[in-house]
Each structure stands twice: as C-alpha cells, then as structure tokens.
Amino acid sequence: MPELHLIRHAQASFGAADYDVLSDLGHEQSFELGKALARQGVSPDALFMGAQRRHRETLEGIIKGMGRDPAEATVLPGLNEFDFSGLLDAHYANKPAPENMHSERKSHFRTLRDTVLAWQRDEIENPPETWAEFSGRVEAARQAIAASGAEKVIAVSSGGAIGQMIAATLNAPSDQQIQLQLQMKNCAVNRFIFTPRNFFLHGFNETPHITADNADPLLTYS
User: Fold this and answer.
1) Nearest 5°: CA angle at 51, between 83 and 107?
2) Is residue 191 within 8 Å of residue 154, measured between CB atoms?
3) What is the DSSP string of 16-67?
4) pTM attached to this predicted model
C-alpha cells in the first residue's frame, strides 16, 4: 500500500527578522533525519514540499542525509504554513495585543492557540486567508499526493498544515488542528497509508533520528 512520510520542517529562526530560514541546528536535524530514514529502508519515489524556504532546506538536508543525489521535488503551495504573524496582527488589529507575542515563545504559542480557535470560528476580520481557504488548500495538496501514483512519498510541510491534514484524516473537530500543531516536533515524521479512495494515519510525530544520547539539543519544537 502506498505510504506518505509527511515531515515537519527542521528548526527555523524564531524571533529573527526572517523566520523562514533554518538555523544551524535545523540543518543538522534534517541531515540526521535523512540518515535515520535511510536506516529504516525508506526509499522515496516521489518528493513533495511546500513553497517556503524552510521546506526546501529541510528536504535538501534529508536527501543529503539519505545519501541520495539531489532530486527535484514537486511544490504544493497547499503544504505551506498559514501566515501566523499576519493572522495574529489581524486578530489584534483593533485591541491591545499580548506583550511580545511575536518574539517570546511562551507568549507567542499561547496567543497563537487562542487566535487559531477564533480564526476557525470566523471571528477574525480580514485574515490573510480564511480558515476554509486554508483547510481547502491542505486538502487539495493531500489529494495531489494521493493521485500521484507514487508508492513511497516524502513530503515536507509545516506544523499547521500537517495538523490539519491529520485532523481531517481522523474526522476530528477543527479545534484539534491547533492541538496537534502545538505538539509537533521539528523534523517529526507523520506517516499515512493510502489508496485512491482511502487515507489512513499510520504514525504521528515520530523522531527516528533522536535518541537518548542526542535529544539535547536535537529535540526542538519551533
């Protein structure tokens, strides 16, 4: 049965001027994940990724770690993360925003959770995209992967899009998307098996590259 390894990007640059760049640790994470996947015998015949830089850099590191030659990946914008900075700004456009919501991790993720729940209820005016648009494009990406004809797929995405694909696969309420997202580790592998008509979750938030010896510093969440 065809299998999809849907991978969250490696550590990006939280708090920096450009978040969409892997940190030095992020490059190490992606390389180590590639080595771990090779040890598991994962040999993809199709590669997909979102259109963001952190997706491309993560996939490049994975492929390098697997010892494979660089290969072209199909870009699916539906795998992109939602614009969390723009969404936060829209939510607090007409009211005081929590202090340091863009720069301090604890404040950011607590505020993001509440903001996403409001977004799902269509309570935010003029968001960068509506919840329906976001969930629709994630579903379109899932369908494109399932229709690709590939047997072993590696795809790199972001926590929000992955959380939504999992929630939709499980027919879970919308509010479970953000709960899944906030659990997602950097370079975590989420596995699905599928047929033309069915799509099943087969593994969640797996980190085959992390052991007791390297969990510090390789285990990160943002």
Assistant:
1) 30
2) no
3) SS--SS--HHHHHHHHHHHHHHHHTT---SEEEE-SSHHHHHHHHHHHHHTT
4) 0.95
Just give the CATH number of 3-81+129-218.
3.40.50.1240
Structure tokens, 10: 């490696």
Hey, what's the torsion of the CAs at 33, 36, 38, 41, to 10 degrees?
A: -130
Rg (CA), the chain: 17
6-35 exposure pattern, b = at least 16 Cβ within 10 A, e = fewer? bbbbbbbbeeeeebeebbeebbbbbbbbbb
User: How open is the CA angle 189-220-41, to the nearest 5 degrees?
Assistant: 30
- Please give the helix or strand (H or E) that residue 154 lies within, else none: strand 152-157
pLDDT tens string 165-182? 999 999 999 999 999 999
* Domain ranges across the chain: 3-81+129-218, 83-128
194-222 pLDDT, tens digit each: 998 899 999 999 999 999 999 999 999 98
93-105 in b/e form (b: 16+ CB < 10 A) is eeeeeeeebbeee
Give the other-Cβ count within 10 Å of 89's Cβ: 17
Which pair of tokens denotes residue 174?
């919308």
How many helices (DSSP H) and strands (DSSP E) are in the chain? 8, 6
DSSP 97: P
In eight-state DSSP terms, residue 188 is: -
Q: Are strands 189-194 and 152-157 parallel, antiparallel or unpaired?
A: unpaired
